[in-house]
Design goal:
Order of helices and strands: EHEHEHHEHEHEEH
Oligomer: single chain
Number of strands: 7
Largest sheet: 5 strands, parallel
Number of helices: 7
Helix content: 25-40%
Length: about 180
């Protein structure tokens, strides 16, 4: 099966839903260059028809659309009668318009033996998010804080730092940083 790795299709999965959700938000922000797209979220529900309508439909308000499928049922349980719908959905994903971003989030590991998972892995850019090893947690937290604009001053005190002209999204409040340190 030929890998397409479409730039507007992401398959994020693993045991760390927090990291996957942070990555989802960064993908949306990066793909639409900071503009707010219309986001359609299917959270553990929906049908192939509803997904296709969201992927093929055009919004009345904005051309940019992000469709997020969080734990879609077809990745958890499968039935033989859905084969033709599955094929039609995968064709829609292959032919996605550049104005539409698709992000599929799956909590846990996908069954890579199934046809739909194999196809999604070949079409979409896929990323796995595993829980971090406890001994790596401190270094990872320091890197995340630095990326969010925090620096450590002498004496182990964390301070917010904004380089001139920067625009940071700060997921950490001062209170949470103090708790972490």
């Amino acid at each position: 099966m030929k890998k397409l790795n479409k730039s507007n299709c992401f398959f994020l999965y693993g045991d760390d839903p927090v990291s996957a959700n942070i990555r989802k938000n960064r993908i949306i922000d990066s793909y639409f260059h900071g503009k707010a797209p219309e986001v359609t979220l299917f959270d553990g529900s929906g049908t192939f028809e509803a997904y296709q309508n969201a992927l093929e439909g055009q919004s009345l308000f904005t051309a940019e659309t992000a469709v997020v499928l969080h734990n879609p049922p077809f990745l958890k349980r499968r039935s033989e009668k859905e084969d033709h719908r599955e094929e039609s959905f995968l064709e829609t994903v292959k032919d996605l318009s550049p104005d539409i971003l698709l992000i599929i989030l799956l909590d846990g590991k996908p069954d890579k033996r199934t046809k739909i998972i194999k196809t999604l892995l070949s079409i979409c850019t896929s990323e796995e998010y595993s829980l971090m090893n406890p001994r790596d947690a401190a270094g990872t937290m320091i890197r995340m804080l630095a990326d969010a604009g925090w620096i450590m001053k002498p004496g182990g005190i964390w301070r917010q730092f904004f380089p001139p002209g920067s625009r940071f999204l700060l997921p950490f409040s001062r209170r949470n940083v103090i708790k972490l340190c």
